[in-house]
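Obj: model holo form, ligand = adenosine-5'-triphosphate.
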Amino acid sequence: MSRAGIIAWQVLISVTLAVVWEWGYDLHERVPWLVPDLLDPYFVSKPSAIYDQFLHASCLVDKRGTWNGWSSGEFSKCMARSENNLWVATLVTLKNTLAGFAVGTSSGFVLGLALGRSDRLTAIFQPFIVAANSVPRIALAPIIILAFGLGNASKIVTAWLVVVFLVFFNTFEGARSVDRDHISAARLLGASEWQITRTVIIPSTMAWLFASLTPAISFALIGVILGEFIGAQQGIGRMIIEAEARGEAAGMMVAVFVLMIVGVVLAGIVRRVQAYLLRWRPQTVGNL
Amino acid sequence: MTPSIRIETRDLGKVFAIDGRDMRAVDGVSLSIREGEFVALLGPSGCGKSTILNMIATLLSTSSGEILIDGKAIDPRRPDPKVGYVFQRDTLFPWRTVQANIGYALELSGVPAAERRERTETALAQAGLQGFGHYYPASLSGGMRQRAALMRTLIVQPQILLMDEPFGALDTHTKLEMHRVLLNIWEREKQTVLFVTHDLGEALTLSDRIILLSARPGRVKDEFIVDFPRPRDAVTLRETPAYGALFSRIWHSLGEEFVKGADT
Ligand SMILES: Nc1ncnc2c1ncn2[C@@H]1O[C@H](COP(=O)(O)OP(=O)(O)OP(=O)(O)O)[C@@H](O)[C@H]1O
Ligand SMILES: [Mg+2]
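Output (holo structure tokens):
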């Protein structure tokens, strides 16, 4: 199918979904068998209400529905009033996601490399890793909140916990499968043990690390939101919980949409970086 | 003055343990290769050619016998910097560009970037790879990759070269091209070369002497002096009667081994 054709279909589907979402429930009285109860705006809100809620939550309009200009100072007053407005929440969640991602990938990489290159360490630590990995991460979240408080630290730790195993297993696999002939070649060209590690083992393991970065960033976001659900003062996860407590479907939906955008942007950036770093491969994975 | 012996093996043997049973791959191989000599080690597939070469290169331990380089027993833990090795398989580092691959050994020994660039440029030109320096190995042809691998080994100017069927995976035309490149370099540098192959034509084109190995376990079966005049041309050499005569003499000897090797 041509590119234009594909886009036409995508637009058609989006518009149809939006129309059903916006007006579908109006038919509920007349044809109850056709319209499921789930479409009730009380649960899922409506596109128009979500848009209004977005303008409020982001301080772009005031309570009466007039636009807050930059010049009038209304915008900054509104920003100052709420400590978890949409901008702050997004920023906090984003920062913690990136921090958890960074800490998780680097520690997972180091652990995977160390164990992957040492049969002795692997033999010693294997049962612990298997045991730790089999605990559902979500079960540990309350303990982490208790131990690290309601602030950023607990979110970073939750994200780390979700990311570290993923990266660890990938790196471990990669470190095990370094081509023996590459190591021999380096040795014969005069490389010391440390030079072999630096110029052969690390680069060839990196390829496996990079392959785990895209899932890792999504996992980090999940970890942070999970932490925010259980106990937080700021963040998008916190917004969702607050909106739920007030029974505001539109508030939850705004947060969900923002998360969606954050997730897509982060994954997109990571994929670009990954494709660049793996450009030496015969073909890099996907071309998105 | 007679040239000195650079590579020597005495009663070299290798036994592999396969499923708890001992399998003798190399048995009592004694070789001596003189300074500046180009020797081909020829034998059927699986006769232990790579095993012998790998033991000399310290990639494999020996089971029995001795290996001496310049009259001194080799240190199995530390490869000799005078010895360069070219693999049977493509072992360029795929994450490095061609130029960075060729300059690898210089990088290890801390040669400054400017000098490295200059020397790798020269090597690229020598191998006919000008303009391909910034390519990654994955986007080169097999012949280009093997030329780059050759240059990666030659950049530090090893006096002794161990080559394990370096052109085995190439088509006939590319192979002849590679012979020309290698002979050119060798005519100038006169390294001492031990060149493993199972291609008789290749052995005749390149070497001064052919050592014929028997089917497994590898033993020295016969030896032939190849005294065609140098410099040789890989293509025209094949049309001379002397080439044909020696070819068929060795072929008969070799043929017996292929028959023996086939039913093991
Ligand atoms: N690491 C190993 N462990 C067990 N057996 C091995 C090992 N390496 C080689 N062998 C065996 O030793 C024999 C000789 O192998 P080698 O690789 O030296 O043969 P080759 O003459 O180089 O053959 P080819 O021309 O196919 O490369 C073979 O039968 C092979 O199966
Ligand atoms: Mg071999």
